[in-house]
Amino acid sequence: MSKRVFLAIVLSLVLVVSLAVSGQSKSITFWLMPNAPDETHIPWLEQKAAAFQAKTGVKVNIEIIGWDVAWQRITTAIATGEGADVFQVGTTWNPQFAATGGLEQLNINEFGGKDAFMKANYESTTYKGKCYGIPWFAETRALFYNKDMFAKAGVQPPKTHDELYAVAEKIVKTFGEGSAIALAGTNAHDILHNWTIILWANGGDLLTKDNKMALFNNEIGVKSMKWYVDLVRKGYASKACAEYDQNQADAAFINGNVAMCYMGPWNIAGIEQQNPGLNYGVVEPPAGSKRKASFSGGSNLVVLKASRNKAAAKEWIKFLLEKDNMVEYTKNLTHMLPAQVEVFADPYYETGVWKTFKTTLEYATAYPPLATWGDIENIVKQEFVNVLSEYVNGTYNDNTVKKHLDAAADRINEVLKKER
Amino acid sequence: MGTSSKAKRVKAFWFILPAAICMLFVHFIPILWGAYISLLDLDVYTLADWTSAPFVRLGNYIKLFSGKFPVGQRFLRSVYNVFIYGLVTIPVGYVIGLLVALLLNREFIGRTFVRGLILLPYITPDSVAYNVWRFIFQARIGLVNKILLKIGLIQEPIIWLVGKRALSAVIIASIWKGWPFACLILLAGLQGIPAELYEAAKIDGASAWQQFKMVTLPMLAPVSKTLLLLNVIWNFHAYNQFYILLGGSVGEAHVPSTFIMQEAFTNLHYGLGSAMSVVLVLIVILLISILLAKRRAGYES
User: Fold this and answer.
1) Looking at CA atoms only, how far is residue B20 from chain A in angstroms?
2) Which chain B residues are closer than 8 Å to A72 by Cβ?
3) What is the SS3 assignment for A126?
4) Neighbour-count burial for A146-160, b at 16+ CB within 10 Å, e otherwise
5) Which of B181, B187, B218 is nearest to B102 (CA)?
6) Is residue A10 included in any domain, yes or no?
7) Number of structural domains, chain A?
8) Residue contact A75–B162, C-beta within 8 A
9) Edge-to-edge, what's the strand order for the sheet holding A280-283?
10) Contact residues on chain B for A81, CB-CB shorter than 8 A
11) How many other CB atoms are found less than 10 A from the CB of residue A82?
12) In a domain, A6, yes or no
């Protein structure tokens, strides 16, 4: 028996030592989201990882993580210091993860300097003036419309919110209730982005300039949310939109059942795959009462502070940002917009729908870089869900929006007090 | 004798040790750890270096119960929801399970096959079953609305998975998923009842209903209590059905598990999340103790 105990101890020692050694070996783990369809995405990544290994001798373990679980995986990695060395984060996540102290501070000059990147994207990597990420790609939202349905209804793409209502009215007359626009409802994780486009266009904002107080429950905020909910109430959007997630809204448009949808450049890959015959166009988001506005998002690459291979992780980021790799990744694979000014200068982005996205991105707004941003976003989202629930329950009235926006504002003002 | 029993004990000690160590590391230490975290203000600022999180004593618990904070009200609401959920799903699942078990306890051709068949909902993985139910409850394409429209109970599609009907939708799906387990356990219980008892009852002139009331039900009591115990525990941890069916729009239909998940892991309020988990564990322990105490009393009588 003592022999066996001895054997067990030896075996476990071997295990511990081998684990320790494997941690020091030349390999890094890279987490990213499904930015392109797997069939094209994975082969491209594997090919690039092999090229990187040939160049530097560092093996890159690639893992694709869905957006729905990415947040939890990353927070776990930050709390435990294990998991990935380098990973993708959404621009709106970057400041919050930076505030945890779990991200490595980066010197932007090593990566070409801050002027090499789109301004809103560079700002999203900062927290308290320091840089904790490198912009990878950008995205913005614009209005997709179905050219065939528009021609049949005899309408032109809307340029303002009022025009959008007028257009929707005619489309509904031609194609029936709910056929004018597809909206993401309570199940959309990005419902906030869709609403802030309206809010900003009407001259409103989520927070005061100094980021100390909620501002969205003022008259402009109430008006903007009513405009959004009325798309459903007036029958321009299907009532079922109340329970939609973004994919369902996108699908309704892509299948050709609905004439308009606020979508992003990544949807183009979806259209090419699912309904290549769709005759669609993209126009800038219709202007509100004050200005044109859109949402600036995208993704950054960050390094885990607890990583044992930070140098290699940074090299991998530099490798991905090389112009050829960037052009391939954005133009051919993901259809995202490059976050680098140099790549964006490619004449390709002056053509077709890309021209629209490029113009839109020039005035697109990013969220403020706050550590408590996740909280703020969730609170607005929850109250938005409550507004839609009241609509579903049949208890929606003129005060519903104001009531829930006030509730959200109160909660957010509490949260903002915690911001350091 | 003394030495051999001592040797036995030593041997037993060695057998238990590996499991005990595992339990220690994967259960007991994390539980105590979690309880300790519930006394910290552990949030986004202290996530990477949580030992530096400020010690706030019972601050998180006060937030939950003082009634002044929305998060507390929402948590209490989620506890209320899970009670409603349990109070409906457990009895209804039990009754359906019992009725089917009584049917299946008779002799008929293909009985074994049917017994296997009724287990289908139970053995379907949660993710599959509840995703299908999510489709069934969709407003525009869902089966429920199609049927209700056809038989004229509703005039236009109603939205099930958002707002006040969400909890009912989850309850319906959960009953469908849960009753076969009750049926399985009760069937085993039925088969354990000696046939002589029924014969004796028949000789005494008992009707079928009297037989059921005087023989079947009392004989099923121990099994039923175990079933109740398991169901109470499972219900309090209900997560999959809510998460899958309602996804991002749990809204008013939050139960403690989904709410803790959201507060701790999405909003990064780990201290508060741990406090809620501790409260949840205490409620479950309390309920189980009551049930177990009753059960013991039942045995003694």
Assistant:
1) 17
2) 265-266
3) strand
4) beebbeebebebbbe
5) B187
6) no
7) 2
8) no
9) A181-182, A260-263, A142-146, A280-283
10) 48
11) 13
12) no
* Residue B140 counted as domain residue: yes
Q: Are residues A262 and A147 in the same domain?
A: yes
3-state secondary structure B8-38: HHHHHHHHHHHHHHHHHHHHHHHHHHHHHHC
Contact B267 A185 (CB under 8 A): no
Tokens 């990583």 found at: A307
Same domain, yes or no: A249 and A190: yes
A384 and A259 co-located in one domain: yes
Cβ contacts of B92 within 8 Å, gap of 6 or more:
B175, B179
- Establish if B3 belongs to a structural domain: no
Run of H or E including B74: helix B70-104
Residue A227: what residue type? W
Q: Is A216 domain-assigned?
A: yes
Task: Tell whether A168 and A284 lie within a shared domain.
Answer: yes
Cβ distance A243 to B47 less than 8 Å, yes or no, reads: no
3-state secondary structure of A150: helix
Crossing angle (nearest 10°) for helices B217-236 and B270-300: 170
Interface pTM (ipTM) of the complex? 0.76
Contact (CB<8Å) B44/A79: no
Rounded Cα distance between B245 and B257, Å, is 14
Nearest-CB residue to B44 (from A100, A238, A245): A100
Looking at the fold, whether A317 and A389 belong to one and the same domain comes out as: no
Query: Domain limits at A377?
Result: 142-293+372-418
Q: Classify residue B11: in a domain, yes or no.
A: no
Cα B23 from Cα B96, distance rounded (Å): 37
Q: Residue A11: inside a domain, yes or no? A: no
**Nearest Cβ partner of B48 from A71, A101, A389?**
A101
Please give chain A's pLDDT, 420 residues, in tens.
455 666 566 556 555 555 554 544 589 999 999 998 888 899 999 999 999 999 999 999 999 998 888 988 999 999 889 999 999 999 999 999 999 999 999 999 999 999 999 989 999 999 999 999 999 999 999 999 999 999 999 999 999 999 999 999 999 999 999 999 999 887 777 789 999 999 999 999 999 999 999 999 999 999 999 999 999 999 999 988 888 888 889 999 999 999 999 999 988 888 988 899 999 999 999 999 999 999 999 999 999 999 999 999 999 999 999 999 999 999 888 889 999 998 888 888 998 899 999 999 989 999 998 988 888 988 898 888 889 889 988 899 999 999 999 999 999 998 899 887
Report CA-CA distances (Å) from A247 to A72, A236, A270, A401: 21, 19, 10, 25
From the list A186, A411, A420, the residue facing B249 with the nearest CB is A186
Same-domain pairing of A282 and A391: yes
CATH code of the domain covering residue A278: 3.40.190.10
Contact assignment for B45 to A420 by CB distance below 8 Å: yes
Question: How far off is chain B from A111, nearest CA to CA, in Å?
Answer: 26
Min Cα separation B51/chain A (Å): 11
Q: Which two tokens stand for residue B128?
A: 């599959």
Contact in structure between A218 and A225 (CB atoms under 8 Å): no
Do A225 and A266 sit in the same domain of this protein?
Answer: yes
Write out the residue range of the structural domain in which residue B101 sits.
68-300
**Which residues of A are less than 8 Å from B165 in CB distance?**
392
Q: Which residues of A touch B248 (CB under 8 A)?
A: 186-189, 245, 381, 385
What is the per-residue burial (b if ≥16 Cβ within 10 Å, else e) of A13-46?
Answer: eeeeeeeeeeeeeebbbbbbbebbeeeebeebbe
Q: Which of B249, B260, B269 to mutate to test the interface with A (most CBs of A within 10 A)?
A: B249
- The separation between CA A371 and the C-alpha centre of its own chain, rounded to angstroms, equals 17
- Total domain count for chain B? 1
A242 and B268: CB-CB below 8 Å? no
Residue B173 lies in a domain: yes
Shared domain check, A246 and A104: no
The DSSP element (H or E) to which A31 belongs, if any, is: strand A27-32
